[in-house]
Amino acid sequence: MFTFIDENGCQVELSFKENQFSIKPNHVLVFVQYEGKWLCAINKKRGVEFPGGKLEQGETLQEAAIREVYEETSVHISDLKWFADYLVHSEIPFCKAVFTGKVERIDPFVEEHETIGMVWLTTEELLNHSKLSFYMRDEGMKKMLQEVKQLERQW
What we know:
By secondary structure, the chain is of the alpha+beta class. It has 3 helices and 9 strands, in the order ββββββαβββαα.
């Protein structure tokens, strides 16, 4: 278990073992790497971040991950693998499931709701980008990037 305080002052618990929290995930976050670069959405309000969002009624976590990535980036993904859960102790606590996925196809980007595009970034570019979303700058994100790199070697 990895614990840290995010930029909003909330305690966050990050676990790389499934079902460690009493609150079930109702949000998703997806790490997609292709040709050595990470897929990021450009959120109108928050900035550059990994694609993700909330579950819709009747949707599984995997279905939400696939839908959110497509809606935010126009990238079709497959081969989803659960990677981590993190619990944010905000005023109303919530849990996010983190997945990795593989690119199946990239469609031309069509602006949707809160995103204005997508960008592919190397790990170095990602860690040093000037317009990262608040959650992309925290210690939990750095820890997840380290862990996903180790998992990639096993896959």
